[in-house]
């Protein structure tokens, strides 16, 4: 069964992983997010749920 031989598949996986991590990841991380999250404080305290069986 050729799919059990890891020799060709391991090199393909390794080259793919290296290309993704070394070439594509820095390009994706260089983008600036246009929608920055705001720091909001909660003003109201949530009310607890009343369970009918307690």
TrEMBL record:
Signal peptide range in chain numbering: 1-21
InterPro entries, sorted: ATP8_metazoa, ATPase_protein_8
GO molecular function: proton transmembrane transporter activity
Keywords noted in UniProt: ATP synthesis, CF(0), Hydrogen ion transport, Ion transport, Membrane, Mitochondrion, Signal, Transmembrane, Transmembrane helix, Transport
The family this protein is said to belong to: Belongs to the ATPase protein 8 family.
Recorded topology in the membrane: Single-pass membrane protein
Name this polypeptide is given: ATP synthase complex subunit 8
A GO cellular component entry from the record: mitochondrial membrane
Pfam families noted in UniProt: ATP-synt_8
Organism listed in the record: Alectoris chukar
Location(s), subcellular: Mitochondrion membrane
Gene: ATP8
GO BP term (any one): proton motive force-driven ATP synthesis
């Amino acid at each position: 069964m050729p799919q059990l031989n890891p020799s060709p598949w391991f090199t393909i996986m390794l080259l793919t992983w290296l290309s993704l991590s070394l070439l594509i990841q820095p390009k994706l991380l260089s983008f600036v997010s246009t929608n920055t999250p705001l720091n909001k404080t909660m003003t109201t305290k949530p009310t607890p749920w009343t369970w009918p069986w307690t």
